[in-house]
Amino acid sequence: MTGWLRRWRRKRILAQKRIPERLWQEVIAAQPLLMRMSVPAQQQLHELATLLVAEKRFYGIAGLQVGPWQTTTIAALGCVPVLELGLDWYRGWCSIVIYPGGFRARHAYPDDAGVIHEQVTELIGEAWDGGPLVLSWEDIQGGVRLDGYNVVLHEFAHKLDMRNGVANGMPPLHRGMSRRDWTRAFTNAWNQAQAAAAAGEELVLDRYALESPGEFFAVACEVFFELPERLCAGYPAVYEQLRRFFRQDPLQRSSSSQAIYRPLTTERN
Ligand SMILES: [Zn+2]
Q1: What is the distance in A from the centroid of ligand 1 to the CA of 52?
Q2: Does 263 reside within a domain?
């Protein structure tokens, strides 16, 4: 679709298929993350979420009935990262698959000898490169608290990371940002986290971040939006890079919030 046609279509969607105001307000009220945003930011999010609902296909499986409450909740949370970037950052894939709860995923991987093995993992979310985004509805509902744990933010962050290839912890950076500064900030934080984990100390991010640089980025994004004070205190250079990337400063919003951090143990992907 050309840029002109897409803009025309989006204008029409906003005029005809806008998420109803009452439903939107109920979804906002159920999510502390959205409640603490300014009214203009919530309105901007309303437009983005309306477009996301129209442009993606939502599939409930394993018996889950997907209705406006589910699609609006997922779209509202999923559009937080692109609030200042625009919906085009989510182009190139079309499906959002929702399980009632955690699900089992089968992955094939080669060993050093080139032999293919199959592994079954219990997951609560998954993002495929160029493919669907998969979520557990139970964990979306359970992730309402501002505790640095949000499976929707996590999986959509992977989608941003995948815009320039595999999820390696570095999405395409904006003009004026430096790959060297980004790499230095994340590498230093990664090394600190490894050392803290080895010493048995409390970690700034959930231990799952240490699975890979891609997971470190996705978990850092969850904490950036939900507990910005924690990320800023623990890894100020990472906070600064994410602030520049997302063009948002969640610290400005959260000064009045009462956030609690809890260590997390659930498996993600
Ligand atoms: Zn992940």
Answers
A1: 21
A2: no
Residue 132 contacts residue 124 (beta carbons within 8 Å): no
> What is the Å distance from ligand 1's center to 218 Cα?
6
| Contact (Cβ atoms closer than 8 angstroms) between residue 81 and residue 160 | yes
Distance CA 219, CA 152 (A): 11
Q: Tell me, in angstroms, the distance from the centre of ligand 1 to residue 147's CA.
A: 17
7 C-alpha to ligand 1 centroid (Å):
31
Task: Kindly give the confidence (pLDDT) of every residue in the chain, 269 residues in length, as a single tens digit, with 9 standing for 90 and above.
Answer: 678 898 999 999 999 999 999 999 999 999 999 999 999 999 999 999 999 999 999 999 999 999 999 999 999 999 999 999 999 999 999 999 999 999 888 877 778 888 888 888 888 898 888 889 999 999 999 888 899 999 999 999 999 999 998 899 999 999 999 999 999 999 999 999 999 999 999 999 999 999 999 999 999 999 999 999 999 999 999 999 999 999 999 999 865 444 444 444 445 56
Q: Residue 110's beta-bridge partner residues?
A: 116
Integer Rg of the chain from CA? 18
The answer to whether residue 207 is domain-embedded is: yes
**Residue-number span of the structural domain to which 213 is assigned:** 3-254
Question: Which CATH number do you get for residue 44?
Answer: 1.10.472.150
Contact residues for 45 (Cβ-Cβ < 8 A; gap 6+): 34, 37, 76, 79, 80, 83
For residue 37, being part of any structural domain is answered with yes
Residue 210 lies in a domain: yes
Ligand 1 centroid to Cα of residue 217, in Å, is 9
Residues at Cβ < 5 Å from ligand 1 ion:
215, 218, 268-269
Number of domains composing the chain: 1
